[in-house]
From TrEMBL:
Keywords: Hydrolase, Lipid degradation, Lipid metabolism, Signal
Pfam families: Lipase_GDSL (PF00657)
Gene3D superfamilies registered for this protein in UniProt: SGNH hydrolase
Secretion signal, residue range per the UniProt entry: 1-26
Protein name: SGNH hydrolase-type esterase domain-containing protein
Molecular function as annotated in GO: hydrolase activity, acting on ester bonds
Keyword Signal: yes
Entries under SUPFAM superfamilies matching the protein: SGNH hydrolase (SSF52266)
Organism domain of life: Eukaryota
GO BP of this protein: lipid catabolic process
Native source species: Arabis nemorensis
Similarity-based family: Belongs to the 'GDSL' lipolytic enzyme family.
């Protein structure tokens, strides 16, 4: 277990660096799925971390406002921890609305812009407090509750046509490692994280949100920050075993909640298997060669002390970047490219249509 923890510890810097402050525009909505089922979402509310955040962290706190972040969308650094769009944007497109405005920008957005929902996610955060001094998920949900109580932007009646995304991508586990807690406590801590996620899901559902999507944990052992040890050739299965424990517990929680409500309110977005499917196929579909080396990131520091976007005191770049981000699944050491997220949601499309769009 000690060796496993040492390997898992390498994730710390990669997740903690997930502080992002993003562009407020997202993928344009598409109505293509609405005729299939009775549920027509009009709003998306988002809670979580860097896989979901589209602009809640101040520019001064995030190097994702520096080149080469954002080079695909919107064409310049804009805060998302990617070369372009992230998970929130693709889910919004799927349900047929614009990507929701970040909470940070709510006072600067017109009423029309707010009608698509709101994104409360902050990169680097978790269900508990992490190394990032930013609102954890409980506080994010508190923000949402205050808006509902105020009633000047949203009311509970608005939520009957809404979807929530609740992203938990691993920052709690990075913090566990940083605190040098005993390795024997790790399985118990995973249960604590999932138990708190259950509390969060119950709170959101109690407000009246119609559908709540919670992603499974992605295969952390396949992140470039880990696979660099094998020259980006192999995932670390010991780390993925811990991920499977998290995901199995999450699956049990969602099944229990749906049984209690007698509805399919809660939906798991199976990121774990979607990521692995893309890795295996080198793209969303069998036979694709879009991602020739799917575990290798597009943007990488020239040595272990540098990360994507790093420059020295003279402004000299200390990273290398691939010729075309569309040929890479991963953008940096822990986050997918826009094309990576597109491929993941392509894999998820069938299950999303069946579970998210039905009344």
């Amino acid at each position: 277990m000690d060796s496993l923890i040492k390997l898992f510890a390498s994730l710390l810097l990669f997740f903690f660096s997930s502080l992002l402050f993003g562009e407020t525009n997202g993928v344009e909505g598409s109505k293509q799925n609405h005729h299939l089922y009775g549920f027509r979402p009009t709003k998306l509310f988002v809670f979580g971390d860097s896989y979901a955040d589209t602009g809640n962290i101040k520019k001064s706190l995030s190097y994702t406002w520096k080149f080469p972040y954002g080079i695909t969308f919107p064409g310049k650094p804009a805060g998302r921890f990617s070369d372009g769009r992230v998970a929130t944007d693709f889910l919004a497109k799927f349900v047929g609305i614009k990507s929701p405005i970040p909470y940070f920008w709510k006072d600067y957005a017109g009423k029309k812009r707010l009608q698509h929902g709101m994104n409360f996610a902050y990169g680097g955060t978790g269900v508990f407090n992490t190394l990032a001094p930013l609102p954890n998920m409980t506080t994010q949900i508190d923000f949402f509750q205050k808006l509902l109580i105020a009633g000047d932007i949203y009311s509970t009646s608005d939520l009957t046509s809404s979807v929530a995304l609740v992203s938990v991508a691993g920052n709690d586990y990075s913090t566990f490692i940083a605190q040098n807690r005993p390795a024997a406590e790790f399985p118990g801590f995973i249960k604590q994280v999932v138990d708190q996620t259950e509390v969060n899901l119950r709170r959101i559902q109690a407000f009246g949100v119609k559908k709540i999507a919670v992603p499974s944990l992605q295969p952390l052992g396949c992140l470039p920050g880990v696979t660099v040890a094998s020259s980006f050739q192999r995932c670390n299965e010991s780390q993925n075993a811990l991920v499977k424990l998290h995901n199995n517990l999450l699956q049990q929680v969602v099944a229990k909640l749906n049984n209690e409500t007698k509805q399919s309110t809660f939906i798991i977005l199976d990121l774990y298997n979607a990521f692995l499917t893309v890795f295996k196929n080198k793209g969303a579909n069998p036979g694709s060669t879009r991602f020739e080396s799917p575990l290798k990131p597009c943007c990488l520091g020239v040595s272990s002390e540098y990360s994507c976007g790093s420059v020295d005191a003279k402004g000299v770049k200390k990273y290398v970047i691939c010729d075309d981000p569309k040929t890479a699944f991963f953008w940096d050491r822990s986050h997918p490219t826009e094309e990576g997220w597109r491929s993941v949601y392509s894999v998820l499309r069938k299950s999303l249509t069946a579970s998210l769009m039905k009344a």
